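Quick illustration for those who missed Monday's session on complexes.
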Amino acid sequence: MADTGVFYKKLAMDAKNYLLYLKEIGIEELPVQKTGVRDQGALSSLESVREELGDCKRCKLHEQRTNIVFGVGNPKARLIFVGEGPGEDEDLQGEPFVGRAGQLLTKMIEAMGLKREDVYICNVVKCRPPENRPPQPDEILTCRPFLEKQIDTIKPEIIVALGTHAAQTLLNTPEKISALRGRFHWYRNNILLMPTFHPSYLLRSPEKKKEVWEDMKTVLAKLGLNVPESKKPV
Ligand code: SF4
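Prediction with iron/sulfur cluster bound:
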């Protein structure tokens, strides 16, 4: 009986916090789900994160962007890929990883026996840094809560962090990608995270593709998925 009491007390607290959160983001009426409760819930939560982001001007990256590049893919994905920030093509199209590096990422996902629609793809910062420079610490700090909310909503089993900035941001570490990649780490103690090289680095250093493929095979094994034999490494 005591356990049941604690459970209902926690439930009431969670409900209260949720209502306060809705009020904070300007929602005065409770959202009603009509069908497909879990799927719809994940989708509407991602939509509310996007709504909260709005026409964001929270950091200086808004000044030169064309589009906010929020994220794309399955709202219930088991696997999320996180890059550092949009490039020129992504800024123009409003979708992450659609330029040359994005095409390489798509090939990598397909070599894993998956499709882009099966996974979720996003970046640490949602607006393009000028001249494709790395995002700066203040920009990462400002945008990071939205990435965290995306991850909290999707609840993936594994995150693949693409490149130094994504890995450092998600793991709160100054270590470089070369020291981090190749093994799993914990994101907030409950989601496995595999750091690996960014596809744009692979375009410059194609000899590193083999290491990335090894990382992806480790991810597939952990997800309980087979490495498709007919596919070749990227
Ligand atoms: S990078 Fe993130 S915090 Fe900065 S303006 Fe864009 S959406 Fe807002």
